[in-house]
Design goal:
Mean pLDDT: 91
Strand content: under 5%
Order of helices and strands: HHH
Helix content: over 70%
Amino acid sequence: MIDFMVVVLVAAGLVFFLGGGVGILRFPDFYSRLHPAGKLDTSGSVLAMSGLALFVLFPITLESVLTSLKILLIVVIVFLTSPTATHAIVDAGVRAGLEPWQKPGGQAEP
């Protein structure tokens, strides 16, 4: 049962990473590309690392529990820092005067 949960978590993480990669390649501009980079990469890493922490946990020994806790600490750090870094990159783009993409022939905002 644990192996099944590990496979599901890691596979879900890989699907999120794949979605993030496709989004980075497909979206038209700097700001919209940061959305999959920030959200899907964070979610993918949380899911995959949680699956690895669960995999390392069994059989339960002191070393395996400590290793799982270290992996979960990495998950927490990534979960806190990745959205902050994405926000800082967007802020740098705004300060540099980078204009958001608009659809050709689209109407300008009032």
